[in-house]
Every structure is written in C-alpha cells, then in structure tokens.
C-alpha cells in the first residue's frame, strides 16, 4: 500500500519532500488512512479538523478522536468550529454546500498561514466512481465522466489510486481505529444514494463495476485530450480564453469559428458551460447560430447576444458605470476583481523597451502632463484623445469602431483621465500621445490595471 501510494505521488508529482502539507482529517477511515500513510512515508504533514456542529455529541466525539490520534502520532493539529446552519441560511445554500464552502475557505487560509504547499484530502477510487455516476445522472460533458483529478489547485488526492477495500485492509493491518459518520449511512443525499443503493445494484450486474467505470474514465481522459486540443486550436485563432473573458469582461467570437468546427454544439458547450449556461440554452444557441440575430440569453453572471457575424459574451457586472478617483500614487481597488497601481519612476533611463512592450495593461506617461486626482471611468459619448503615435484628435467612439469593437465592448471600455479630463489612457488599448514620456521627461508615472489576486 505504501509503495502503491508513493508511486502514484511520484507519477503525478503531487508532493514535494521539502514542503509542508495540510491533511484534512475528519476522523473517518479515508482521512485517517491518508494521514498515517503520508506520515509514514516521511512527508511533513499537519492535520486540520473542522467541527461543523451538525451532529451534536457525534461532532464533539469526532473532534476528540482527531486530537487523540494526532497526539499519539506526534502530529500537529489545527481545529476550528463552524455554525454551519447559520452560514447556510445566510448564503441561502444547502447544509452540504455550506460545509464544503466553510471547510475549503478555512483550509486555504490555513495553508497561507502556515506556508503549506497544499491540502491533502482522502478521496479514493470509489469516490471517483461515485462522482462519475453522479455527473452521468445530472447530465454532463466528457470532462464530467473522467472522474476526480489527482490535483486541482491546492487540493491534492494521494489516495485516488486506492479503493475503499484497499483503505480498510490497510487500517486493519495497522490496527488503526477510525470513526464512522452516521450521516454517511443514510441515503438522504444523492451521493449517498449512489453509494448505498445504486452501486450495490450495479455490482450484481458486474462485481467489478468500479474497475469498469474507471477503465472507461481512463479512455475518456484520452478522448478529452484529443477533443480539447482541437477546441483550443479553434479558440486560439481568436485568442479566446475564459481567463481573458474574466479580465476583459466582454469577448466577441466570430460565428465562423463555431460553424467551421466539426461539432458546433460541443464547442459552444466548452465555451458556455463554465459561464453558467445550461444545456437547454446551449442547444438553443447552437440552433440559432445563423438565424437568431439580436437574440439574448442570460446566465447568473453573463449575457450572450448573437450579432450577424459573431457571438458576443459579456459579464453583467461590467455594465455598471464606473467612476473611481485616485488622489495620488498608490494601490487602489477598482472593483471586486481589479485594482490599479500608480507609481512614480524617477530614473527614466531605467525603463527598457522590453518593459514598454510587455503588458498592454501597464503604461508609462510623463508625470508632469497628468494632474491628480486621476479618474478611471467608462467611455462616454464625446470623449476624445490623441492615439499614441498620432497627432490628430480622434473621437474615442470612432477609434473603437476602427478596431471593430462591438457595442458591449464600447460600453464597457475604460478611460483613464486626469483632473482636467485630459485623456491619458484607453485602458488596454492605447495611451494618449499628449502624455507620452520623452528623453526630456524628469519623472514618469507607471500605471498598471491588474487582477487583484495577482497583487
């Protein structure tokens, strides 16, 4: 078992011998097995236990068990209590979702606090099988049928190579005790129904059903790689990515990209499903690609419009008017996801040509030409500027039209001005030639529009 897990860790490069890791410890068989194995393999681990206060004395029993286990193994443990029901009511989500949200928020913060490289959780092969069946029942694409991934961000799953039977056998061999969460034995949520009712029936048809499902998932992983390679090639032709959409707030994809792809329906699913559009909407959009000009579809956060030649995706919150003032140099929050950093540079000669070309969301302007406070706002009718490299004044709206920007992009385009309403920067596109810095400039302002999580 130890060799099996170590080989899996090595194969997927899950852990580093020189880093510390958190182990999510519930006290159940899976998490106890994970903690004992990683500890025995010599990894630096600390345990984290959450008391969700959902099962009365059982919750307190679980906590005490984890404390005692870590004391015997000489492993540091971190404890936290949550009022899960209150959080679920506040957020208007299920108890299960509330517990999951609280747990992972806490783990991520704890990782930062103790400089841990990741959070190891006890998901195993049977969990992956349950996830595949759950996704199949709900309706999913290829990705949902490939099972749980060994690593996803900070979440690491070293036991995915092991079955539940493997885990129980190891604990028995080690003489290790664990506790059983009674809520896992009641088929009151869909995953429990699959574990307790569906899988036993499937085993009557095929006693090795778990192996068969995982074998199918393995084939689908290879299929997914081929399909996603083709998808990414198609989307790279227009430089689309979900990350770029998040930053820009709006993106236009020519209809030709979808119509020329071997399956426009799959390409639409790949683009739109992560944005909250459901299967029925995606089916409608696919059917109307060439005929539903002007029609609009909405998800919780995004809006789609079909133009004559393109599919336009825009974030709803980017429709809100923006007007932010920056009184001096410093770092300022623009919205929930973006910030702006303003810095003086006194050594003008130190600015390299490489720096100037590196990032369209960073500019360098002559500090003497800009009067504070600087103002970041949406473009409005009548805005004018002198595009960098030119001498004549141009309407911003005409400039955006020349760039073939659609109406959503025009509406959400940001403009940075100074206190006198002098245009400084059409954000992400072009600085104003009147504020360019030259060899005669004695001081430069470096201004960056950045994603807040990159700070």
TrEMBL record:
CDD domains named among the record's database cross-references: TilS_N (cd01992)
Root EC class: ligase
Residues passing through the membrane, by range: 21-43
Subcellular location: Cytoplasm
Annotated GO biological process: tRNA modification
Pfam family, one: ATP_bind_3
Positions contributing to ATP binding: 26-31
GO CC annotations, alphabetized: cytoplasm
Alphabetized SMART domains for the sequence: TilS_C
Domain of life: Bacteria
EC numbers: 6.3.4.19
Lysidine-tRNA(Ile) synthetase C-terminal domain mapped to chain residues: 374-447
Homology family: Belongs to the tRNA(Ile)-lysidine synthase family.
UniProt comment concerning the protein's domains: The N-terminal region contains the highly conserved SGGXDS motif, predicted to be a P-loop motif involved in ATP binding.
HAMAP family in alphabetical order: tRNA_Ile_lys_synt
Descriptive protein name: tRNA(Ile)-lysidine synthase
UniProt organism field: Prevotella bivia
């Amino acid at each position: 078992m130890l060799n099996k897990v170590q080989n899996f860790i090595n194969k997927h490069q899950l852990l580093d011998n020189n880093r510390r890791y958190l182990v999510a410890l519930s006290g159940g068989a899976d998490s106890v097995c994970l903690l004992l194995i990683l500890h025995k393999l010599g990894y630096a681990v600390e345990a984290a236990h959450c008391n969700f206060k959902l099962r009365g004395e059982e919750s307190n029993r679980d906590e005490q068990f984890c404390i005692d286990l870590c004391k015997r193994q000489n492993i540091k443990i971190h404890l936290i209590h949550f009022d899960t029901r209150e959080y679920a009511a506040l957020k208007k989500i299920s108890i299960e979702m509330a517990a999951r949200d609280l747990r992972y928020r806490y783990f991520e913060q704890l990782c930062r606090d103790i400089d841990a490289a990741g959070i190891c959780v006890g998901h195993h092969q049977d969990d992956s099988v349950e996830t595949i069946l759950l996704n199949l029942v709900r309706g999913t694409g290829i990705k949902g049928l490939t099972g749980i991934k060994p690593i996803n961000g900070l979440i690491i799953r070293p036991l995915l190579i092991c079955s539940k039977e493997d885990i129980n056998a190891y604990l028995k061999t080690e003489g290790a005790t664990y506790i059983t969460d009674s809520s896992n034995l009641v088929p009151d949520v869909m995953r429990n129904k699959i574990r307790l009712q569906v899988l036993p029936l499937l085993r009557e048809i095929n006693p090795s059903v778990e192996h068969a499902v995982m074998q199918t998932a393995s084939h689908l992983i290879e299929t997914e790689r081929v399909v996603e390679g083709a998808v990414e090639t198609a989307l790279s032709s227009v430089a689309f990515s979900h990350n770029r959409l998040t930053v820009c707030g709006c993106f236009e994809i020519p209809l030709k990209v979808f119509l020329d792809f071997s399956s426009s329906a799959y390409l639409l699913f790949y683009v739109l499903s992560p944005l909250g559009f459901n299967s029925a909407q995606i089916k409608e959009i696919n059917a109307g690609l060439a005929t539903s000009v002007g029609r609009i579809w909405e998800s919780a956060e995004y809006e789609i419009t079909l133009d004559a030649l393109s599919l336009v995706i825009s974030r709803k919150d980017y429709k809100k008017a923006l007007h932010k003032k920056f009184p001096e140099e410093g770092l300022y929050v623009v919205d929930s996801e973006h910030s702006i950093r303003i810095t003086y540079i006194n050594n003008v000669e130190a600015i390299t040509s490489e720096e100037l070309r590196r990032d369209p969301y960073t500019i360098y302007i002559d500090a003497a030409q800009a009067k504070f406070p600087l103002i970041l706002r949406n473009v409005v009718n009548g805005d004018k500027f002198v595009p960098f490299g030119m001498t004549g004044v141009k309407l911003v709206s005409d400039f955006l039209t020349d760039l073939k920007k659609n109406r959503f992009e025009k509406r959400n385009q940001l403009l940075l001005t100074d206190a006198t309403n002098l245009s400084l920067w059409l954000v992400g596109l072009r600085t104003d030639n009147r504020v360019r810095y030259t060899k005669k400039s004695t001081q430069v302002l470096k201004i960056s529009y950045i994603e807040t999580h990159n700070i």
